[in-house]
Write a structure and sequence with these properties.
- The protein has three helices and no strands.
- By secondary structure, the chain is an all-alpha fold.
- The protein has a single domain, classed as Non-ribosomal Peptide Synthetase Peptidyl Carrier Protein, Chain A, CATH 1.10.1200.10.
- The model has no long low-confidence stretch (mean pLDDT about 80).
Length: about 80
């Protein structure tokens, strides 16, 4: 999860007016106001960094950073 937070914080929580601290409980859409394109862009960066493919059918289950970390961990373990 640390990797995901390190990718998200400088990009979407770095706004000085933002009070969001990125953590496992951070909601990608409501807390970070990411749209579907930004989420896909972020996922592609993670796939490239970790050299894995995230099952796009599982994206409907992703709401928080922790949800995403769980899916990434499943891909790494398989």
């Amino acid at each position: 999860m640390t990797l995901l937070v390190s990718y998200l914080e400088p990009r979407w929580a770095a706004d000085p007016s933002s009070k969001v601290k990125v953590s496992g409980a951070t909601n990608l859409t409501s807390d970070l106001t990411l749209d579907s394109f930004q989420i896909m862009e972020f996922l592609m960066e993670i796939e490239d960094e970790l050299d894995l493919a995230i099952d796009m059918n599982k994206l409907s289950e992703v709401h928080t950073v922790s949800d995403l970390a769980g899916i990434v961990a499943q891909q790494i373990d398989s």
